[in-house]
């Protein structure tokens, strides 16, 4: 009896796990040029029949990353990173120590820009990709793609990409 029931339980469990909301950002880090357009990709799958709400949030760096990108970083940041390989002094800090703001939200075909981004050429294209028409200096940081559905509450509903804007 166990030989018959156990495979069915395993199959049911795997099917349930696959049907949960899954958000993935294929590129974890993207480097782009100042005043040029870019697209931050985000893919999601859901078992929900309801329309998903897609939101992109921006989080600034915890400390300036420009020096590191040019090959000059602080000795303190280097020593802390060496002690804990999982911790990144540029990315890992409390939200209260950095700027956090909503870039854009999409529900159905309606896209709403966050207050800071109004007047800029920014939209959400395809299902969840963030398209920025002209990059500015302050656009460097972490971008979180967050997807919510009213009836698919299991799984991973967000992922992030780091954007570094260079001259």
From TrEMBL:
Gene Ontology cellular-component terms listed: membrane
Keyword set, alphabetical order: Signal
Signal peptide span: 1-20
GO biological-process terms attached to the record: pancreas development
PROSITE patterns, per the entry: IG_LIKE (PS50835)
UniProt xrefs under InterPro entries: Ig-like_dom (IPR007110), Ig-like_dom_sf (IPR036179), Ig-like_domain-LISCH7 (IPR051874), Ig-like_fold (IPR013783), Ig_sub (IPR003599)
Annotated Ig-like domain residues: 7-162
Signal among keywords: yes
Name the UniProt record assigns to this protein: Immunoglobulin like domain containing receptor 2
Native organism: Equus asinus (Donkey)
């Amino acid at each position: 009896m166990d030989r018959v029931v156990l495979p069915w339980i395993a199959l049911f469990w795997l099917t349930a796990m696959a049907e949960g909301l899954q958000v993935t950002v294929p590129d974890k880090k993207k480097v782009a040029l100042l005043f040029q357009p870019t697209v931050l990709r985000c893919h999601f799958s859901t078992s929900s029949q309801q329309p998903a709400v897609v939101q992109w949030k921006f989080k600034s760096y915890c400390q300036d990353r420009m020096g590191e990108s040019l090959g000059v970083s602080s000795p303190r940041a280097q020593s802390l990173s060496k002690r804990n390989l999982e911790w990144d002094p540029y990315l890992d800090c409390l939200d209260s120590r950095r700027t956090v703001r909503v870039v854009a939200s999409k529900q159905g075909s309606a896209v709403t820009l966050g207050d800071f981004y109004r007047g800029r050429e920014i939209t959400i294209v395809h299902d969840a990709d963030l398209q920025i028409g002209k990059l500015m200096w302050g656009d460097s940081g972490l971008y979180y793609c967050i997807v919510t559905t009213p009836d698919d509450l299991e799984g991973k509903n967000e992922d992030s990409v780091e954007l570094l804007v260079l001259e």
